[in-house]
Amino acid sequence: MTGVIGTVRHLRGLLAGTAAGAAGTTALNTVGYLDMVIRGRGASEAPEVTVERLSAALHVPIAGDGNLRENRVEALGPLTGTAAGVGMGALLGLALSCGWQPSNAVLTATATVGALIGTNGPMTVLGVTDPRTWSRSDWVADIVPHVTYALVTVAVLRGLEPRRAVHTDQIRGGVRRCGAVSRRALFA
Questions:
Q1: Is there a contact between 112 and 173 (Cβ–Cβ < 8 Å)?
Q2: Residue 136 in contact with residue 109, Cβ under 8 Å?
């Protein structure tokens, strides 16, 4: 029976992490787009270049010719970021379900670093970018969305933890008792 319970716990952690990573990725994208609006900057071409180089390195062609292929590359770029964000959340949820019990600060730092490595790592390895050459404003523009990702991901993960649900049930029970007492007092 323990095996089934453990499997369910890990699946729940994986799914909670996936949801948390999706929420964090949405927050990251929102901050990135707001930065584009505020500074009037264009979208980065780095994700598309990464897709092109990854395709070449793995000898996996992207189907289509001309605009068809360009459109696929343009879509695959942001999808790789989404996969990294959702994947990082899933890994964190799974780690928590396996018994890892970090503080919120450690979990947030882990999510931030994991997201930075998950997105910038492939671009650096493939020679698309070199963080050693980034300016201070480049670093800020990259770190702020990733910290936002981590904060949202951790908040959702913590909110979906089973022990939080037990606490929620206790609050719900207290509200019901309070409601019952109020009804009796009003209609007595």
A1: no
A2: no
Distance (Å, whole) CA 187 – CA 163 = 36
Cα dihedral 94/99/105/109 (nearest 10)? -40
φ, ψ for residue 98 (rounded to 5)? -85, 0
Q: For residues 54 and 60, give the distance between their C-alpha atoms in angstroms, rounded to a whole number.
A: 8
Q: Please list, residue by residue across 94-128, b when 16 or more beta carbons sit within 10 angstroms of its beta carbon and e when fewer do.
A: bbbbeeeeeeeeebbebbbebbbebbbebbeebeb
Distances (CA, A) of 86 to 24, 60, 140, 180, 184: 8, 23, 22, 43, 48
pLDDT digits (tens, 9 = 90+) for 100-151: 999 999 999 999 999 999 999 999 999 999 999 999 989 999 999 999 999 9
- Those residues whose C-beta lies under 8 Å from the C-beta of residue 52, and which sit 6 or more positions away, are 62, 73
